[in-house]
Amino acid sequence: MVLLSRLKIAKNMQYTHKFKNGFKMAKMTTTEIDRLIGQKIQQKRKELGYSADRLSEYVDISQPQLSRYERGANKINLSHLVAIANFLKTPISYFFSGCMEKSEWNSDELDRHWQELTSKQKALFVDLLKELRKS
């Protein structure tokens, strides 16, 4: 009984893991992440004008299974997601946008990096920032 309740808690726990590159998982449950990925699959498929039958045939899964993926009812198999991304000619990262959030810069860390730059590097960096704001 205790094991079962722990599994239920783990299934719906929120992901807030921090990663080295400054990104962390958004505060979403696994179910919400499954739904978001499924919605993105369906959105991209429809945007490109493909039927669910055609995509499921390419991925070699049943159409009902694809439907469950798109609704977020089932967790998607990673190899199936790769096949879907290839078929839709879409980077796999597209399906995870919205699942990751950029963590706030720590001002102390930013100051430390700035202090380590030479005067020439600082000038180049400021010029780069000005160009980025124009676009």
UniProtKB/TrEMBL annotation:
Limits of the HTH cro/C1-type domain: 41-95
InterPro entries noted in UniProt: Cro/C1-type_HTH, Lambda_DNA-bd_dom_sf
PROSITE patterns: HTH_CROC1
Gene Ontology terms, MF aspect: DNA binding
Protein name: Transcriptional repressor DicA
Source organism: Phocoenobacter uteri
Organism ancestry: Bacteria, Pseudomonadati, Pseudomonadota, Gammaproteobacteria, Pasteurellales
Family matches, as Pfam families: HTH_3
Domain of life: Bacteria
